[in-house]
């Protein structure tokens, strides 16, 4: 009896697929919050299919967006100010909800990944 219960539980959990309606988040206005030290800092970004404009601390910055598939894209600054900003970022949408998505990102070619949540505001 225990074996049947455990098998059923594993079968149910193993079949779970997180919601991923990535196309709902290809365009729009979004907010991303990050804790830096003791401050919560907000970045607002506007994305159409191939351009993303980030607004942070009152300054805008434009990046190109190249979609790999519906849930993954590469972001690269149009006018990098230093060598670090020249590096492209790989973004992958992991799960989606009504007005937000969870994503992971890393510098292209590097293995260290970080996660974040973006909220669609328009």
Give an account of the 3D structure:
- 11% of the residues lie in helices and 52% in strands.
- By secondary structure, the protein is mainly beta.
- It has one domain: Lipocalin (Beta Barrel).
- The protein has an eight-stranded antiparallel barrel with strand order 1-2-3-4-5-6-7-8.
- A hairpin with a 2-residue loop joins strand 1 (28-36) and strand 2 (39-47).
- The longest helix has 13 residues, at 2-14.
- The N and C termini lie far apart (51 Å).
- Mean pLDDT is 86; it is low at 3-10.
Give a brief rundown of this model.
The chain contains one helix and eight strands. The protein has 122 residues and is mainly beta.
List keywords for this structure.
Lipocalin, mainly beta, disordered N terminus, 52% strand, eight-stranded antiparallel beta barrel, 122 residues, 1 helix
Report the CATH C-level class: Mainly Beta
Strand residues, percent: over 45%
Q: Outline the biggest β-sheet.
A: 8 strands, antiparallel, barrel
Count of distinct structural domains = 1
| Dominant shape | globular
Distance between the termini: 51 Å
